[in-house]
Write a structure and sequence with these properties.
Blueprint lengths: L2 H47 L3 E4 L5 E3 L5 E5 L3 E19 H8 L8 E12 L8 E7 L5 E11 L12
Antiparallel strand pairs: 1-7, 2-7, 3-6, 4-5, 4-6, 4-7
């Protein structure tokens, strides 16, 4: 075997080994891509299954003491269905963080929204594109009350900021 033939045979062997290694890498990459696509599909299914999940329902009355109130955060990218019954008329007050600080300090504030009544069934959408909102629920005269919550959250992200986050 001549020197040139030997070199050509070695080059062919090296190229064949490189092709085998590249094929193995391609198989691994294809497998990883398939796994990633499965994960994305599963995530999509999980997000779709959040179309309306229970946020707060514990199956029995909450007793709120005199001068007390309930506090809740409105999660970013979710609409919240606020359903409840109470044994007296209560106010559900939607506040941004600054308004809540003013409420806590007994300062004047203008809430984003107020819902009054002993029974409520309202969608709150301000947090769809903004995480800066909370709600408080209190009796108008800060008396004690019984409260039966049935609150749902629905995944509903927006393409733009909403509410205070627009500024």
């Amino acid at each position: 075997m001549s020197k040139l033939t030997y070199i050509l045979v070695m080059v062919i062997i090296v190229l064949a080994l490189a092709v085998v290694a590249l094929n193995r890498q391609l198989e691994l990459s294809t497998s990883q891509l398939g796994d990633s696509q499965t994960q994305i599909t599963n995530l999509h299914i999980e997000i779709n299954s959040l179309s309306q999940n229970t946020f707060w329902t514990d199956g029995h009355d909450q007793i709120v003491p005199k001068e007390g109130y309930l506090f809740g955060s409105l999660p970013d990218s979710f609409s919240v269905l606020l359903q409840y019954t109470a044994n007296t008329s209560i106010s559900t007050i939607i506040l941004n963080n600054t308004q809540y600080a003013r409420f806590q300090n007994n300062e004047n504030y203008t809430p984003y929204a107020i819902y009054n009544g002993s029974k409520q069934d309202v969608w709150i959408n301000v947090s769809d594109g903004c995480s800066g909102y909370v709600f408080i629920q209190k009796a108008s005269n800060f008396s004690a009350f019984k409260y039966y919550p049935n609150i749902y959250a629905k995944y509903a992200p927006t393409e733009t900021f909403t509410g205070d986050c627009q500024q």
